[in-house]
Design goal:
binds S-adenosylmethionine; 9 helices; about 15% strand; 8 strands; alpha/beta; 8-stranded mixed sheet; about 280 residues
C-alpha cells in the first residue's frame, strides 16, 4: 500500500470465480482479433478470418482499432498528468503492445500503481510484459472476469489504496458484456468501491455510429465465430455508465474527438468519455 493504511474492503459485488474463455484457437477471441487489427502477431487463423470478414464490410476497422488504442494513451496521459491520478485499475487490458497503461502513466509519474485485469489466457501468457514497473511504482496482473467485481476489488486492494483516488479504465471491453449480465451494475459496483476524486474512463462500440447495413454486416460476419458476443450500444446507453460522475470536457464524444492529438485520428465507430466521481 502506498499510504501504509489498511485497504478499504470492497463493497458488495460478485465474488464468484468465473472461468475465462478456454484457450481455443479454433474460435476467434476478442483479444486476439484486436491484436491482429493492431498489427500484432499473437493471433490465429480463426481470429484473422473473423477480422478479415469484418474488414470486407468495414475496411476502416483496423484504423479505428488503432485510433482506440491512441485514445487509451491520451486518457492515461490526461489522468496521470492533468488529473494527478497515481492509481489505475485497467480492466480489459488486452495483449500487451506499445503504450501499455503503466508505461504511459509511469512516464509522467513513475510512482504510479497499475493493476491490470483480463480473463483471456493469452493475455495472462504475456503478462510478464505488463509487469515491468518503474522502481518507484508497481504493476500487478489479475486474471479475472470483469463480471467478478468482488474478486477483482479484493485482489486489487493488495496493490491499490482504495482510500485514495483510482482511475478505473474500461477501454473497449464493455461491449463484450451482454445486457443479460447487467454491465451497468458492474460499472456501478466498481465506482462504489473508489473514493471521490476517482475517475472512470470508457470507450465502447457505438451502434449509432455506423450505418445499419455496415453494422449488420459486421454482426453477420462474427455471428457464431467469436467467443464473445459483442453488444453495440448507442450514445444514450453508453452515457448511462457514467451515472454519478461529472464528465470531463469534452464530455461523451466519438473516440477521435476526445482531446485529439494535433496529428488527428482516424474515424472510429466508438463512444468514449471520462467521468470524475464527485
Ligand atoms: C479489445 S481488447 C482492449 C484492450 C485495451 N483495453 C485497449 O483498448 O487497447 C478487450 C480486452 O478485454 C478482455 N475482456 C473481454 N471480456 C472480458 C471480461 N468479461 N473480463 C475480463 N476481460 C475481458 C479481452 O480478453 C481483451 O483482452
Amino acid at each position: 500500500m502506498t499510504s501504509g493504511e489498511a485497504p478499504v474492503p470492497p463493497t458488495g459485488g460478485d465474488t464468484a470465480d468465473r472461468a475465462g474463455p478456454p484457450f481455443d484457437t479454433s474460435v476467434a477471441h476478442q483479444a486476439r482479433m484486436y491484436d491482429y487489427m493492431l498489427g500484432g502477431k499473437d493471433n490465429y487463423a480463426a481470429d484473422r478470418a473473423a477480422t478479415e470478414a469484418a474488414f470486407k464490410v468495414w475496411p476502416d476497422m483496423a484504423a479505428a482499432a488503432r485510433a482506440n488504442r491512441a485514445f487509451l494513451g491520451r486518457v492515461v496521459r490526461y489522468l496521470a498528468g492533468e488529473a494527478g491520478i497515481r492509481q489505475f485499475l485497467d480492466i480489459g487490458t488486452g495483449i500487451p503492445t506499445a503504450g501499455n497503461t503503466h508505461q504511459v502513466a509511469q512516464e509522467i509519474a513513475p510512482e504510479s500503481r497499475v493493476v491490470y485485469v483480463d480473463y483471456d489466457p493469452i493475455v495472462l501468457a504475456h503478462a510478464r510484459a505488463l509487469l515491468t514497473s518503474s522502481e518507484a511504482g508497481v504493476t500487478e496482473y489479475i486474471e479475472a472476469d470483469l463480471r467478478a467485481t468482488g474478486t477483482i476489488l479484493t485482489q486489487a486492494a493488495q496493490v491499490l489504496d482504495f482510500t485514495k483516488p483510482v482511475a478505473v479504465t474500461l477501454i473497449f471491453i464493455l461491449h463484450a458484456i451482454p445486457d443479460a449480465d447487467d454491465p451497468q451494475a458492474i460499472v456501478a459496483r466498481l465506482l462504489d468501491a473508489v473514493p471521490p476524486g476517482s475517475y472512470l474512463a470508457i470507450s465502447h462500440a457505438g451502434s449509432d455510429l455506423l450505418d445499419r447495413k455496415t453494422l449488420q454486416g459486421i454482426q453477420d460476419a462474427w455471428r457464431g465465430k467469436m467467443q464473445q458476443q459483442i453488444t453495440w450500444r448507442n450514445r444514450e446507453q453508453v452515457a448511462r455508465f457514467f451515472a454519478g460522475t461529472d464528465l470531463v470536457a469534452p464530455g461523451l464524444v466519438r473516440v477521435e474527438e476526445w482531446r485529439p492529438d494535433p496529428a488527428g485520428s482516424a474515424p472510429t465507430a466508438a463512444w468514449c468519455a471520462v467521468g470524475r466521481k464527485p
